[in-house]
Structure to design on (365 residues):
């Protein structure tokens, strides 16, 4: 494919090699090594947060957040996300209670949470979908009223902000994915950002088998540690984060300029006060048939697309089918993500948009 749906960002090989040379010199490969600590410090500073813990991936980040915050039983969540959001709940023995989304923002809509659901749940797990800030004030109010923990799956929201703060600073915990395809990455990796020190200190032990300082298990733990090699990649990519952020914003703005007035598709409504972070470029077609036809025509023109997210997680048998979510079910059949990665050029975006517009004209007569 001429234009893949994503392409990992690679920093300067020399720079990465310099970090790796240090690992060889020290022969210290994992277990909270110096590069993991350095990356943690630099991310804390970049994001303006106090309690950030690096982990092996974004899925374990979610599980560690549940364990550190003592989440159990039922959790209110969105069906419009990547499988990891729900499967991490089920993996931890928690029952997902699916609540429908807002058709425009694609985020969980708090007005769809019933009093019974709130009363039965121990937490809300919301997703800042494609990096778009959730209704954090409404979620906080509801959580306070029903004594729920708030966890944000912020896997897509690394450079998103809200009211002058990093979006990951909202909630009792927010989790990030640093997978190779993400805007900022460590090849594989993730992080949990906690509001309070106690949960952070507990999570620090949980990710290392639940050991205390004397290697005695005091929590049920897991191995969720990030290695030095992964931290090395993170440090090299973080050096380029201003370039990555600016480039992604330029690309996403160009996509929106070109596609804003195309009949037959709609773009995601972003939080009115904030800028799109350019993590993904989703478009929503008027019908599933059109979406499927266009995806085929784009593939022929060398443009890869992805049905993301599909299917709606409330329709997946193994997750338990808890909740009526007609909006998410419908949108998941009509959504398509277009290529988005830092190395994409504005001329590439123009080409992709032209192909898309031509394909729509060809199909819709
Ligand atoms: C919304 C969301 N949550 C969680 C994850 C899981 O992250 P990871 O692949 O790092 O385990 C992803 C991965 O793409 C995601 O998109």
């Amino acid at each position: 494919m001429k234009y893949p749906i994503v392409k990992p960002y690679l920093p300067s090989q020399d720079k990465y090699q310099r970090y790796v040379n240090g690992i060889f010199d020290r022969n210290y490969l994992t277990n909270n090594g110096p590069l993991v600590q350095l990356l943690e410090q630099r991310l804390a500073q970049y994001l303006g947060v106090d309690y950030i813990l690096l982990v092996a991936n974004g899925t374990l980040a979610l599980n560690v957040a549940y364990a550190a915050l003592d989440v159990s039983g039922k959790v209110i969540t969105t069906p419009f996300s990547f499988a990891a959001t729900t499967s991490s709940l089920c993996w931890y023995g928690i029952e997902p209670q699916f609540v429908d989304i807002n058709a425009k923002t694609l985020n969980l809509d708090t007005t769809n949470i019933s009093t019974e659901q709130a009363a039965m749940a121990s937490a809300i797990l919301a997703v800042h979908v494609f990096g778009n800030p959730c209704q954090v004030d409404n979620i906080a109010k509801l959580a306070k009223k029903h004594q729920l923990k708030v966890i944000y799956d912020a896997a897509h929201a690394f450079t998103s902000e809200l009211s002058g703060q990093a979006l990951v600073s909202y909630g009792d915990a927010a989790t990030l994915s640093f997978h190779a395809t993400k805007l900022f990455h460590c090849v594989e990796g993730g992080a949990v950002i906690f509001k309070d020190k106690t949960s952070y200190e507990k999570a620090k032990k949980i990710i290392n088998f639940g050991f205390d300082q004397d290697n005695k298990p005091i929590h049920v733990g897991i191995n969720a540690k990030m290695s030095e090699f992964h931290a090395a990649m993170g440090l090299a990519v973080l050096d380029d984060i201003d370039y990555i952020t600016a480039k992604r914003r330029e690309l996403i703005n160009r996509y929106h300029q070109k596609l804003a007035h195309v009949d037959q598709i709609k773009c995601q409504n972003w939080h009115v006060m904030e800028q799109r972070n350019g993590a993904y470029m989703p478009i929503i077609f008027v019908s599933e048939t059109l979406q499927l036809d266009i995806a085929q025509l784009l593939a022929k023109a060398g443009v890869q697309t992805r049905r993301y997210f599909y299917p709606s997680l409330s329709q997946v048998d193994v997750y338990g089918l808890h909740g009526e979510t007609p909006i998410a079910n419908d949108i998941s059949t009509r959504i398509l993500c277009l290529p988005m990665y830092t190395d994409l050029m504005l001329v590439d975006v123009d080409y992709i948009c032209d192909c898309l517009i031509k394909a729509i004209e060809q199909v819709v007569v």
Q: What stands out?
A: The chain has twelve helices and twelve strands. The chain has a mean pLDDT of 97.
